[in-house]
Amino acid sequence: MERNSFDALVSGLSETERLTMLEKMKSTGEETVPLSFEDGSDLEAKIPFAEQIKNESIFFRFFLWLKSIFANTSMQVLYNEHKILQIAHSVEKNCPNLIDSKRNILLSSFYDKLTELKLSADFFKPYILIAESDENSFLVFLGSLVMSEVEEQMNEEVDPYSLPMENGPRPEQRVNLLHKMDGILNEIPADRRNYMYEAVRSYEWLKQFSKLPFDRFISLFSTIVEKNYCCAFSSLENEISLFAKVLCNGVKIHEEVLESIYLFSRKGTSGRTLDSMDEIAEKAADFMKTAKSHISMMRMFITSVPLKSIGRVVYSDAAWIPENFTGGEDWFVRYKNNWRKLFEEKWKAWGVDCKKEQLKIDLNRNFGLETFPLLTERPWSLLWGGMPFRYELTAGFLNWYMKEKFPEFELPLKTVMLEGDFIQKENRSEFNDSFNKFIQISVDLQSLNRMLSAGGEYGIIFTKLHSERLRTLQAHSKIESIIRGVEGDVRSMLSRFGDACRTMENCFTGIFLEKKDSRYDALTNLARLGGKNNEEFIESLKKARQSILDGYAMIRELEQVDSPTFSR
Questions:
Q1: How far apart are CA 483 and CA 489, in angstroms?
Q2: pLDDT in tens, 91-107
Q3: 441 touches 563 (CB < 8 A)
Q4: Residues 251-306: pLDDT tens digits?
Q5: What is the residue-wise DSSP string for 71-130?
Q6: Higher pLDDT among residues 391 and 277, named by residue
Q7: How confident is the model at residue 37 (pLDDT cuts 50, 70, 90)?
Q8: CB 421 within 8 A of CB 524
Q9: What pLDDT, on the 0 to 100 scale, is given for residue 515?
Q10: What is the DSSP letter of 187?
Q11: How far apart are CA 413 and CA 436, in angstroms?
Q12: Res 273: pLDDT
């Protein structure tokens, strides 16, 4: 795993791609308009009717008292009805064609504005769903835009890759880094925390807005005359209150929130798109312009559709007030917990890379290699910016070993197979089977490389898709199927290689009279094999044994660190 920033772990974007898109998004001009709108009616609604009645004229109070006697009801009930009539008249006068209070219906203008508002919700919904699918990681990513200094400190002071790799991970190092992390998070200035809280509330507001039941609400409208829609108050359940809870408690949508939901939606696409960097940046700028346009449309609805007043008319309650908007209050706990999770992921990755560095020492000492060999043909590495393959290092080493190293010892092994006189006849069968497995694995690897080459069965498909510069769901599924098939073939080879190594080592314990297992015995003619060069033959046989042991040990170690998580 390369040494990426913590942010790259979350977003899957390269630093260059992220900065280029951010720069383009910030160049889109005007800020977003605030979605908060206060009509002042809440102050009066919170005053008890009994108190409000006291402030009415004496003639009106007398009228209410007299009417309450004849109607056999309270003055408060009558006063509520009076207020509802006032509110309805105000809505019908100032915002015509929204409601008809006499017929108790919502009208076409309300329907039209609601359907327009749904377009904005539909625009934001896909981005919100992606952020919500990994919300804790999204909070850290949002924080990297709102409080960039925190991420900078983390990368400078808490990154395991700043530690020397020679000695590998140690518990005290981990504890020390976690202590530094807690210190950085706990020392975030109050003004930065407050701004982050506002940004989180912006995201929460967008999330709740995109989840409003638009389809259900719109379906309640019916048309009697073409394009003339209406909805009876009696058909409404809690739609008005649900919408009012969000729309009557609007917030300012911070630009960092818009930037973050777009960038987070591109998670894992770095290097996996055919667009140029300019095209990527232009798409980011287009998103920003469209998002700001939708926010302006949302504000237009909020300021032109008095949902509080309409709710009071619909619910026949002049004191009705929408629920307060809530969400995001626990942001810091989640933010802190996910920083811990990110650290653990990076600590684990660093531990794997430390292990790889140690394996490189063995690789050089036992095989004279400076770097891990890879398969001769790896077409998945060039397609769509690179597709993950489970056995990059393991398959690469096995291929190199069978092609370059095993042939050095093939002759002495074959001599034992053909000329060796095994005391235990079963040992000959096991030795022969193991040798033949090695040969078959070598043949299978050659066949696999041919299939993966540009003219091979698999390679042709990779080459065709790469030249077409097209990534469809069908093409992706096809490539995934091929890769999984190749992984299955490699897994089978590794299993057979392990079986052959273990069995041959058992045979060697008998051949060299080590007798670790009573089932394995010596050769009666070991001292005669190779003729006059018997000593050199035995030495070459011992080297073959050691090479097989070293190769098997390397394969076992590589399997533990070789996975798409760390090698892609």
A1: 10
A2: 999 999 999 999 999 99
A3: no
A4: 999 989 998 999 898 875 444 444 455 667 788 888 989 999 999 999 999 999 99
A5: HTS-HHHHHHHHHHHHHHHHHHHHSTTSEETTTTEE-HHHHHHHHHHHHHHHHHHHHHHH
A6: 391
A7: low
A8: yes
A9: 74
A10: T
A11: 11
A12: 45
What is the Cα 197 distance to its own chain's centre?
Answer: 23
Cα four-point dihedral sign 316, 320, 325, 330 = negative
Per-residue pLDDT at 272: 44
Residue 186 CA: distances (Å) to CA of 140, 154, 193, 526, 558: 15, 13, 10, 72, 40
> If you search the block for the tokens 């926010």, which residue do you land on?
295
CA distance 217 to 238: 10
Q: How far apart are CA 563 and CA 496, in angstroms?
A: 20
For the CA atoms of 212, 216, 217, 219, what is the dihedral angle to 10 degrees? 150
Which residues are CB-contacts of 111 (< 8 A; sequence separation ≥ 6)? 218, 221, 229, 230, 231
The pLDDT mean for the chain works out to: 85
Nearest Cα neighbor of 547 from 413, 421, 370, 361 is 413
* Degrees to nearest 5, angle at CA 510 with 509 and 516: 55
Q: Is 437 helix (H, G, I), strand (E, B) or coil?
A: helix
pLDDT of residue 464: 85
Nearby residues of 276 by Cβ (< 8 Å), 6 or more positions away: none
What single-letter DSSP state applies at residue 12?
Answer: -
The first and second tokens of residue 71, run together, are: 């109607």
Quote the distance between the C-alpha of residue 547 and its chain's center. Answer: 43
* Distance (Å, whole) CA 513 – CA 532: 22
**Residue-wise DSSP of 439-458:** HHHHHHHHHHHHHHSTTSHH
- Across the chain, how many H-helices and E-strands are there? 24, 4
In three-state secondary structure terms, 523 is strand
Q: How confident is the model at residue 164 (pLDDT cuts 50, 70, 90)?
A: confident
User: Nearest CA to 552 among 437, 417, 388, 390?
Assistant: 437
231, containing H or E segment: strand 228-232
Half-sphere exposure of 428 (CA within 13 A, CB side): 13
> Per-residue pLDDT tens for 176-201?
999 999 999 999 999 999 999 999 99
Residue 322, CB half-sphere, CA atoms under 13 Å: how many?
A: 24
Q: Which of 417, 402, 412 is nearest to 497 (CA)?
A: 402
**Residue 171, pLDDT above cutoff 80:** yes
pLDDT class of 69 with cuts at 50, 70, 90? confident
With beta carbons less than 8 A apart as the criterion, state whether 230 and 222 touch: yes
In this predicted model, which residue has the larger pLDDT, 513 or 553? Answer: 553
Where would I find the H helices in 305-330? 307-314
Residues facing 99 on adjacent strands: 106
Cα dihedral angle (48, 49, 53, 54), rounded to 10 degrees? Answer: -20
Each residue of 478-534: pLDDT tens digit?
A: 888 989 999 999 999 999 999 999 999 999 999 998 877 778 898 899 899 988 999
Locate 484 and state its tokens.
């999984």
**How far is it, in rounded angstroms, from Cα 557 to Cα 500?**
17
Regarding predicted confidence, which is higher, 270 or 135? 135
Tokens (6 digits) for 114: 């609601």
